Amino acid sequence: MATSLPRGNNRSRSGAQRLLPAAPGDIQAALTVMGRRDPRHDANHMIDLSYAKLFGADLHRAYLASADFEGADLTGAIMHEANLTGATR
């Protein structure tokens, strides 16, 4: 059974060639918003991504300090230059 990758540019924002399929568009859009938010407005709330299916997500340069990734599937995720200070897994 043949599997095809999405057409078009198969590179992340970091310019790295993807070897695995990217995350679905709606998931990637939500992660992009979370990663670009102003953390000064977090009021000590932690981003809970525990058990999330983040397969192929582009988290390049995302600010996800103190996020909870326990049990999350990060297979193929691009995390180059992401701020994961204090994040749990």
Offer a concise description of the structure.
With 89 residues, the protein is low in regular secondary structure.
Percentage of β-strand residues: under 5%
Give the distance, in angstroms, between the N- and C-terminal Cα atoms.
34 Å
What is the H/E order? H
Radius of gyration: 14 Å
Which residue ranges are poorly predicted, with pLDDT under 50 across at least 5 consecutive positions? 1-10
- The helix tally amounts to 1
Helix content: 10-25%
> By helix and strand content, what is the structural category?
little secondary structure
According to DSSP, the number of beta strands is 0
Let me know the average pLDDT.
82
**Which geometry do the CA atoms define?**
globular
Largest sheet: none
Region (Disordered): 1-20
Protein name: Pentapeptide repeat-containing protein
InterPro entries: 5peptide_repeat
Biased composition (Polar residues): 1-15
Explain how this protein is built:
With 89 residues, the protein is mostly loops. It has a domain of 61 residues. Helix content is 13%, strand content 0%. The N and C termini lie far apart (34 Å). InterPro entries: 5peptide_repeat. This is Pentapeptide repeat-containing protein.
What labels would you give this structure?
89 residues; Pentapeptide repeat-containing protein
